[in-house]
Amino acid sequence: MGDPLHTPLCEILGIRHPIIQTAMGWIATPEMVAACCNAGAIGFLATATVRPEEVDALICRVEELTDRPFGVNFLMEAPGAELIVDTIIRHEVKVASYHRAPNPEFIKRFKDAGILCVPTCGAVRHAQKAVQLGADFVIVQGGEGGGHTGTVPTSILVPQVVDAIDVPVVAAGGFSDGRGLVAALAFGAAGIAMGTRFLLSAESPMPAETAERYFAATVNDILVTSEVDGMPQRVVVNELVYRLESSNRASLLLKALGSALQYRKLSGASLGELIRSALAMQSSEKMTRSQLLMAANAPILVRKAMIEGDPVGGVLPSGTVAGVIGDRPGCAELIERIVSEAERTLEALAS
């Protein structure tokens, strides 16, 4: 018998362990990405919260820190997306990941350049559409996942998608250990993708004050709200969320306007670019006008917690699994721990 932990995902990506570190805005830095890659998994660099012209330097930094395959995540409808596509292709990055508004032209360019394409999906129909557009494998996030999420639990959604498409499926939403990896394989997945577990790692730039709020949270403190940016988002409930939940619509839209102005300054995008990006997002996500106006809230309020160290006034995106995480190991130690536990679990099942 072959090694059950050496899955098709390992073959496709040229990695030792079927584990993906997802691209978390403000968090998935070159240092985190390289640490995961050097440990035998694969990391994805987050670019949604940086200016397009800065992506080249970030990729160069990853290349300085590791010679292993890595990925880059970006928003296809964001201002400057064309520049990011050019940069990914020029560096011959192993894989490009994305969600929302898949751009067929960008996907074709990646395919022509030999770059793997992997979207994150939260529904069977979205996964099927992604494969039609050229996805080489698909990350499927169940309702337990952090940030923007759906309602179908991972244990139900992943087997459905596995049965519906003919490319490898990576399970996301609720994973943090070796037992979870084995469970994902039992669902038919070829590996797991984790955000929250790597968010709470030693390489994460998250300030200690913010990390303490995660460690203090139980699974009952991690809920879904639509008041951050108008879309369902799983977060650790804090003072800000309570305030948003009790605010009237006018106050929420006023706050969103302030966030939009901050986002424009951070992104360096022109007003016209932001409007075109917003319209593309509205078309792909079927967003209402109020949701569109509130869209800038998430990156700005997450930054407040993740970079400025304000867990009271910032948003704390989180998977439910944060409620059972209590330490902050390095990425290499974490990956080794997960693989060792998965091997022990498989041995116990076999006996």
Radius of gyration: 19 Å
In whole angstroms, the N-to-C terminal distance is 15 Å
Number of helices: 16
How many beta-strand runs? 11
**Order of helix and strand elements from N to C terminus:** HEHEHEHEHEHEEHEHEHHEEHHHHHH
Any low-confidence stretches, pLDDT <50, length ≥5?
Answer: none
Largest sheet: 8 strands, parallel, barrel
Shape: globular
Helicity range: 40-55%
Strand order of the largest sheet: 1-2-3-4-5-6-8-9
Please identify the structural class as seen in this structure.
Answer: alpha/beta
Strand content: 5-15%
Task: Quote the average pLDDT.
Answer: 91
Report on this model:
- The chain is an alpha/beta fold.
- Helix content is 47%, strand content 12%.
- The chain has an 8-stranded parallel β-barrel with strand order 1-2-3-4-5-6-8-9, surrounded by 6 helices.
- Helix 12 (249-267) packs across helix 15.
- The chain is globular, with a radius of gyration of 19 Å.
- It starts with 7 loop residues before the first helix and ends with a helix.
- The mean pLDDT is 91.
